[in-house]
Write a structure and sequence with these properties.
Chain lengths: 350, 350
């Protein structure tokens, strides 16, 4: 099947060199996985900016948020020739039974009038706060709910990876709502409309004994307390989404139901995009699911980078039939691509 | 330090032979981990009854709940000499990338006038229902909240292990509230009083990359939707609670704060009991924690059985200074023991 994604010719749109480090002594390693929204006629991105101190010849250095340290960041150092250090995954490693990230991420705003050229804020907009965010905050989804924006993102710490929420109406004042989904959870996006008088969200808990990282929905009376968890889509052994999957963003309303993009990864950590169609009145009912990906990591900037073979979308804007995603490529840069909603629905047999 | 537990001389109180199977063709393998409550002057237990079909010489048989099957249970069969079968853990095994439990559990009521002699219902009181409980329901906690009882238990299925809730006021009519904590989660107990106008609960999410099975609290406006997750106690490397821990039941109000018993396990899956003391007005604040266990698996019926080396309490009743636990021993039988609350507090330095 031909891919449905039309990539921007100017990709990548944003690279690490375009982003000013948040503190002296840090380098921007990756800029990736933006939340996407519209505000005052502009397209806004909530970039994930991943930083670390420069490695030396002999040591890898790891940043950890610590309010008591200068600039709020404490630097841990590990000798590269230490036999207890396994650096086979560029994203994280274990040492003496503890796991560390190689980078610490914060969230930063970028703005565009034309959807292609982005002005990136000079400073971090949101950084990790408190014990549940000491390894950083990542992969923010933005939903426009009533008259405000609801941000849901991965909060990373030695306590695990959970989902925290922040609310804003003006992108200047931010209200922190704490953790809404306990570890191990990620990939949470709040629906932009209520259904049956309740708020709904996609989320993605991880299993231990029973393995699998499946997509669930939950509902809420107030956005901050969630229940009624239901698993709606499971990974498919032997297919492109065999090990993990997660919703991209709030679903889009279509005449056939809620259309949701999702990422799926295989055992080689190759990340593609697919789509789910959900019943309009009951989002626990899956009406259709992509057999083949609607987008695969085929461009050079998707195949090679900090973590190659990845297209990962956690935000999009809709304009008529055109759904434009801003996505992380190879966990390194931010790119753009557009889809026809009609073509995605056709690929789902609708 | 001397153990604080006074075991009942008549232990074990309930053994598998005392429990009638829930369906023809099943054997009761274990009766364990009861929720505990008082109702109409009686002590009630919500037993976990774990059943399976008899093994044959050549096959292990695994029960899975399936409404379409006779008696609602489908029997899967695996050849014991299949090299893909790893039976080193008596509780579960993997086959061709999928995990199965060796038994399926239901919940069953038992009643006592004197707290020692229990009459066990002839039939299953609550069995797994729906896709999130197809591998059974386990380890129920019971909390008396306002004028009803709130039951929280592990819901096990190929989707993972989460926490479901059931409410009852008369132990005859049961209201199912679905899943309140998504996988991977267990060991949830609702506090019996509100604090700051909200309900509170202990829960125990599990991590993947960052490992560790720590105790968290969450709060709720309505018992069925939860948020404000906070990690209050982490496993302690090298100690008796180094790999996993979980709250026993709703905490007990004392003059020094909320007293909560918990189980802790080490790398050898040896399960002991300890205690936490929490701030009365802010249960996210831990005031004290056991250095040594207050109870260890030392009796013969705790050391040997289906899964030896286990004392696991998920329910107790308080009478003056006496806290009586009914606990699972070696994952096989139900036993009783009592503690002095004053002695537990003294062991915590209070």
């Amino acid at each position: 099947m031909p891919e449905l994604a039309q990539r921007f010719s100017s990709n990548p749109l944003i690279s690490p060199k375009d982003v000013r480090p948040s503190a002296p002594g840090l380098e921007v390693e990756c800029v990736l996985n933006p939340g996407v929204f519209r505000y005052n006629g502009q397209t806004g991105l909530v970039l994930r900016v991943a930083e670390r101190p420069p490695e030396t010849e002999r040591a890898i250095k790891v940043p950890v948020l610590n309010p008591a340290a200068p600039d709020g960041i404490e630097i841990l150092s590990f000798a590269k020739d230490d036999p207890e250090l396994d650096l086979s995954d560029p994203r994280l490693f274990s040492y003496q039974g503890r796991t560390y990230l190689t980078t610490v991420s914060h969230l930063r705003l970028a703005w565009s009038d034309n959807g292609t050229d982005f002005a990136i804020d000079e400073r971090a907009t949101l950084t990790g706060e408190g014990p549940l965010e000491s390894f950083g905050i990542e992969d923010c989804r933005v939903s426009a709910v009533a008259d405000e924006y609801v941000l849901t993102y991965a909060a990373v710490s030695p306590h695990g990876v959970g989902v925290n929420m922040i609310r804003t109406s003006d992108w200047k004042q931010f209200q922190r709502e704490g953790m809404i989904f306990a570890p191990e959870n990620k990939n949470t996006a709040v629906f932009e409309e209520t259904i049956g008088g309740r708020y709904w969200a996609f989320h993605r808990p991880s299993n231990v004994n029973f393995k699998g990282n499946h997509i669930w929905v939950a509902s809420s009376p107030d956005l901050t307390h969630w229940g009624g968890h239901a698993c709606i889509a499971m990974v498919r052994p032997g297919q492109w989404d065999e090990t993990r999957m997660g919703a991209a963003a709030a679903p889009v309303r279509t005449e056939h139901g809620w259309l949701a993009l999702y990422h799926g990864a295989d055992r080689h950590n190759r990340y593609c995009l697919g789509a789910l169609l959900l019943d309009y009145g009951d989002p626990t009912r899956v009406l259709a699911r992509s057999t083949d990906p609607i987008m695969e990591p085929t461009a050079s900037y998707e195949r090679e980078g900090f973590f190659g073979g990845v297209v990962f979308a956690n935000g999009h804007v809709l304009d008529g039939d055109t759904l434009t995603i801003y996505y992380g490529a190879a966990d390194t840069v931010v790119c753009g691509a557009s889809f026809s909603v009609r073509e995605i629905l056709a690929s789902l047999g609708r």
